[in-house]
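Table S2 (text version). Query chain:
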Amino acid sequence: MNRKILIMGLPGAGKTTLANALAPLLNAVVFNADAVRANLSRDLGFSLDDRIEHAKRMGWMCDRVVEAGGTVIADFICPTPDTRAAFGDAFTIWLDRIVAGRFEDTNRMFAQPEHFDLRVPAEGAPQFWAEKALALLRPPFDPQRPTALFVGRYQPFHRGHQRLIEEGLRRVGQVCIAVRNTHGIDAKNPLPYFAVKQRIETALAPYAGRFVIVPVPNITNVFYGRDVGYKVERIMLDEETEAISASKVRALSAAP
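Corresponding structure-token output:
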């Protein structure tokens, strides 16, 4: 999932309303261009050069959120190809709901985008289009597609687990992560299911729609008969990742 989202269009097209409807669905931060200009870019005017610089700053801020593992929405006119290039790659939602905004200089400057991921016309409520955007950004998990299964305690979920699951995603396309119910049975299992689930969702946020997390009993044995229709296979990680995973296990085993 692209976690850098640009909602662009003329002033008055409804960008802020759509951003506020979409943000809770993605647990996203919203940067409103007017608020950023008022608080952080007061030195900039509205010439083309200043608008390009403002776009660079908006894009830089959004990139930092993504690097930290978050999702960010830029509520931003972004009127020209040059400002869009300065902002950088993003999932782009174009609000094509009005033919002119309230600022004549912006109307003259505004160029319709050649490339966008979702065009929003005048018809339809903001929540409807927020759900449309969500479906494109985070496709629903398809339980009938080939799926890899991972079973574990994940106390806690660490980089070794993440690498294993990413390899499963690479090989099969989507995964089911089964979290064993071991919470509280001893000092090595301090985290309840929902805390484990939250950590996994955060680590795997770029793969949203390609994994599902389910609670299962404390599975201690896996049996199968002949011709079960699936493969059981061990994934071998590189030595560095295996060493990191082993050190995590030793640290947890030594904890009081």
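Notes on Table S2: The radius of gyration is 23 Å. The CA atoms of residues 148 and 175 lie 5 Å apart.
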